[in-house]
Write the structure tokens for this entry.
Amino acid sequence: MQELLKQIQDHKTEIEAFTAIDEKAAEEFRIKWLGTKGLVKTIMGEMKNVPNEKKKEFGQILNEFKQFTEAKYEELKQSTVNGQQSTASNIDLTLPGDNIPVGTRHPISLMTNRIISIFQRLGFAVAEGPEIEDDWHNFTALNLPEHHPARDMQDTFYVQQNPDWLLRTHTSNIQIREMQKGKLPIRIICPGRVYRNETVSARSHCFFHQVEGLYIDENVSFADLKQTLYFFAKEMYGSDVKIRFRPSYFPFTEPSAEMDISCMLCKGAGCNVCKKTGWLEILGSGMVHPNVLSNCGIDPNKYTGFAFGMGIERPALLKYGINDIRLFSENDVRFLKQFMNYY
Ligand code: DAH
């Protein structure tokens, strides 16, 4: 009986290794193994020599061998079509490949990248920071101590109270984190998402995006701030753009100013978008407050700096002619696909 078992095992090894390059070879396989005078039949014929008490056990082994051979034949039949092995015939290596569908860039990402690339040309590096922030980095270090009335300018989502954790209300937290690292000079541009507890409408949302800028070195002046932002405005909105600064208030800068650009739609004549003023407000800025520098361990007698912050949604609305800020976060592919060929 041992001999019979060995024979079956050898047959199996041979069958397993067999490959057919065409239908003819598959047919030869069938005749050799499964034909009326085939080897499977011969082996099955050995049953009569098996003692009665072993018949059940061997019956199973032989049946299993037969099924194994039949399955192999089916496989060979499948893989040989039109006189050749299918893997060889069905693949046309000269056909162009299927395109892998790639997504489109989101208009907010497009606008962010545009802004970043302008400042990168001036030597600004990109820095990022956390969206879940502690009170100190988002407010206190920025010269907004507890109970400071200016905290009400930004309606905050708290994640936890005492100690306070919140969703950052602006990207100014990144300034603080970079200054704390203590590596000077600093020249960074900080894009990111920010959150405020505001009613969602076509014009405002409970989350949006900002880009913050910070430049700290010896002898940085307001003239540097103006020149940098003027360069930005010209690159972004065209060389005929005009800029103007209006005095403003931010706790973290002194003096502070808001910058307007001449309305690119009506060229300053007055239209609905600029509310007939001819000007569009695009960013807040100022000279970094000495308290902010010392809060971060930088000597305000040695170093000065300027900072600015701007929203990304608004320029994106203007640039792409979009009239509802909610479209940015609705993930409607019909909207998003329109930015296929934008850079
Ligand atoms: N953090 C301000 C805001 O969200 C924007 C801002 C204004 C940032 C002036 C600055 C700055 O860095 O200097 O409204």
Q: What stands out?
A: The first helix runs from residue 2 to 17. The chain has a mean pLDDT of 92. Residues 170, 172, 212, 250, 253, 284-286, 307-309 surround 3,4-dihydroxyphenylalanine (CB under 6 Å).
